[in-house]
């Protein structure tokens, strides 16, 4: 029976041509499964599934909610329609599913019974409802919402007097909606915070009387280091400061017994790629206690365990994801999951005996899983991407090599061509991640994205994705090892990986291509100023000029951190580490891709490189995607980028 089922799945793909070869368009059809939430009693898991809409004028992802029984007996779609539903949660009493949707214009809160039925809208706010959390007694929901325009601001917008003052932000504040209707059968909303600060995260005390929240001076992406933690009575009242350090304090979580509040902090030493630990304080405030350090020192608190003696936390671990149980008495964390693959969105039952998550690895498409923490038994709850699982994949493996200076062992992921023959040499695509504290992990290589890995492999390319110094997942010391060294030590780490594949007689030395996005775009632009070994390059949203980037980006404090000072004090350093300083050395045909609305790495960074290459007579092309910020979100654009990259690389490899 299983063989017959797989045969028909394969035939279904064959009819569309998808089984014959990987394409960016086909890969975009993979279901994007995310945000699993397990019910308190551990019986159900709700999650979201996103699919592309690309017909006619549409280019977006439609997201809906699915619910599965943890015993595997049921898995079905719960919401429908042409408007997305997301941010799914269960009420603590297991009666309701909640979510946000823009069915009537703005994102608002909805609830429906866990056995299905019509959803009821419980907020009618002027602005979008953001992050939210159920009270433990299931009687209220706290949520965040950005401040609305004043009447004067609305009039000014209508009458074209809509001048904008730079850095004049609208903050998000904390609200509570009661699920007990008033005499007019309406749900009452109460605002709990106001003032010149921006609320970013919320957590209820177990008695439902108090809400802890993190907040920073404004929504600016550059002032995350001002984040502190306070609390406020759930019925309204005076705000109380709980944690106020010079650095970033975030992710507050009350213990189930109400005795402790845990949070993530840099210990008063803020840095963009710094060290983070988990601390606990008495629930009402008091002295901090730092818990044991995790491997990568970049933990995120998922939740407390039911006994209030440990916390569930997650972070990157080399090319995988680590889920730990971290004791609150200071003892070392204990890993509860295997090292292979990526575990995303872990969610724990109230008793702490079951974990739901999305699992994928390089050749396994993402699906919803649930694991019993008593016996480690795993049940696969969904099969939404099984049509991808039966396709022939280019194999992916982890390789390692020694850095040129001998300081580090560098890891990378290599995806081999779909029909790989070890007796042949193949063209190589060097793909560099962003960050720089990003990391390439063992996620599914058949997923649609700006770098459709299996498409590259199907076209006969080896794909190398290195994690050089500065990457996340390898500990704080490794993560900060590229300070004052962008484009040099990391360059050597990356090129040593390329040389390894050439020395292993896998990659052809005359058929090399390079690409990267953001910091990966920076590295690509630096590489082509240092060597002409690559026959073609694609620079995606790349930082090309540190000097002009610093004060045009929405994070002007980022580069001064990495280069230990402001550009006016370290002009020579900023120039040395900028591709534009040495752009006259470039001989490599280069495709430049950028978003028109990119605030993180402004579009001017792409224009600088492109204009210079044109004046130098280097074959080049620049493509700008409208409505796009630092990464494309529209599926038509995502598909176009993948197709455009290969077309560019093929064009110049064939000119050998």
Helix/strand layout:
Elements: H1 2-16, H2 24-28, E1 32-38, E2 44-53, E3 60-69, E4 75-77, E5 85-90, E6 96-104, E7 106-113, E8 120-121, E9 129-134, E10 140-146, H3 151-158, E11 172-181, E12 187-191, E13 198-204, E14 210-216, E15 228-233, E16 240-243, E17 249-254, E18 260-265, E19 277-282, E20 289-290, E21 300-304, E22 310-317, E23 320-327, E24 334-335, E25 342-348, E26 354-361, E27 364-372, E28 378-380, H4 386-389, E29 396-402, E30 409-415, E31 426-432, H5 453-458, E32 462-467, H6 476-479, H7 489-503, E33 507-517, H8 519-530, E34 534-540, H9 546-550, H10 558-562, H11 571-576, E35 590-595, H12 603-616, E36 620-625, H13 635-653
Parallel strand pairs: 31-32, 31-33, 33-34, 34-35, 35-36
Antiparallel strand pairs: 1-2, 2-3, 3-4, 5-6, 6-7, 7-8, 9-10, 10-11, 11-12, 13-14, 14-15, 15-16, 17-18, 18-19, 19-20, 21-22, 22-23, 23-24, 25-26, 26-27, 27-28, 29-30, 30-32
Task: Give me some keywords for this one.
single chain; 656 residues; Rossmann fold; alpha+beta; disordered N terminus; globular; 4-stranded antiparallel β-sheet; 8-stranded mixed β-sheet; 13 helices
């Amino acid at each position: 029976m299983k063989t017959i089922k797989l045969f028909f799945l394969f035939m279904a793909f064959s009819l569309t041509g998808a089984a014959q070869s990987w394409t960016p368009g086909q890969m975009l059809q993979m279901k994007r499964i995310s945000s699993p939430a397990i019910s308190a009693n551990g019986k159900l898991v709700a999650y979201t599934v996103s699919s592309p809409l690309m017909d006619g004028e549409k280019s977006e992802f439609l997201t809906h909610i699915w619910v599965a029984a943890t015993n595997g007996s049921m898995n079905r779609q719960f919401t429908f329609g042409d408007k997305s539903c997301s941010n799914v949660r269960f009420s603590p009493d297991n009666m309701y599913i909640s979510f946000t949707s823009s069915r009537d214009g703005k994102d608002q809160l909805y609830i429906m019974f866990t056995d299905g039925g019509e959803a009821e809208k419980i907020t009618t706010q002027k602005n979008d409802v953001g992050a939210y959390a159920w009270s433990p007694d299931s009687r209220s929901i706290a949520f965040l919402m950005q401040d609305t325009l004043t009447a004067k601001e609305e009039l000014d917008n209508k009458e074209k007097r809509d001048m904008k003052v730079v850095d004049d932000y609208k903050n998000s504040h904390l609200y509570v909606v009661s699920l007990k209707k008033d005499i007019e059968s309406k749900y009452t909303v109460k605002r709990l915070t106001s003032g010149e600060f921006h609320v970013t995260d919320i957590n209820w005390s177990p008695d439902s009387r108090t809400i802890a929240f993190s907040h920073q001076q404004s929504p600016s992406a550059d002032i995350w280091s001002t984040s502190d933690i306070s609390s406020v009575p759930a019925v309204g009242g005076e705000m109380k400061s709980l944690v106020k350090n010079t650095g970033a304090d975030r992710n507050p979580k009350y213990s189930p017994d109400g005795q402790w509040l845990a949070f993530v902090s840099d210990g008063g030493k803020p840095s963009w790629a710094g060290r983070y630990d988990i601390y606990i304080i008495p629930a009402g405030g008091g002295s901090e206690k730092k818990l044991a350090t995790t491997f990568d020192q970049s933990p995120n608190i998922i939740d407390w365990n039911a006994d209030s003696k440990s916390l569930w936390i997650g972070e990157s671990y080399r090319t995988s994801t680590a889920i730990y149980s971290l004791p609150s008495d200071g003892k070392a964390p204990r890993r509860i999951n295997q090292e292979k693959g990526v575990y995303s969105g872990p969610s724990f039952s109230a008793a702490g005996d079951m974990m739901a998550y999305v699992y994928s690895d390089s050749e396994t498409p993402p699906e919803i899983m649930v694991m019993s923490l008593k016996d480690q038994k795993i049940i696969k709850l969904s099969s939404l991407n099984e049509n991808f699982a039966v396709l022939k994949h280019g194999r992916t493996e982890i390789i390692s090599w020694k850095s040129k200076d001998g300081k580090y062992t560098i890891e990378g992921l290599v995806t081999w061509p779909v029909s790989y023959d070890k007796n042949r040499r193949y063209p190589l695509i060097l793909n560099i991640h962003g960050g720089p504290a990003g990391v390439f992990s063992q996620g599914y290589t058949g997923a649609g994205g700006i770098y459709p890995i299996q498409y590259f492999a199907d076209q006969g390319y080896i794909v190398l994705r290195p994690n050089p110094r500065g990457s996340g997942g390898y500990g704080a010391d490794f993560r900060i090892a590229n300070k004052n060294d962008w484009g040099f030590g990391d360059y050597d780490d990356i090129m040593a990986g390329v040389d390894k594949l050439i020395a292993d007689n896998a990659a052809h030395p005359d058929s090399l291509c390079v690409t990267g996005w953001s910091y990966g775009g920076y590295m690509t632009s630096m590489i082509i100023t240092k060597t002409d070994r690559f026959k073609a390059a694609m620079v995606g949203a790349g930082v090309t000029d540190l000097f002009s980037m610093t004060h045009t980006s929405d994070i002007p404090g980022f580069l001064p951190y990495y280069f230990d000072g402001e550009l006016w004090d370290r002009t020579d350093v900023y120039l040395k580490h900028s591709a534009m300083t040495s752009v006259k050395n470039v001989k490599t045909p280069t495709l430049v891709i950028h978003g028109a609305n990119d605030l993180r790495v402004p579009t001017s960074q792409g224009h600088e490189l492109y204009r210079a290459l044109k004046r130098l007579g280097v074959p080049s092309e620049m493509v700008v995607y409208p409505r796009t910020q630092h990464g494309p979100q529209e599926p038509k654009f995502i598909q176009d980028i993948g197709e455009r990259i290969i077309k560019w690389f093929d064009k110049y490899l064939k000119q050998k």
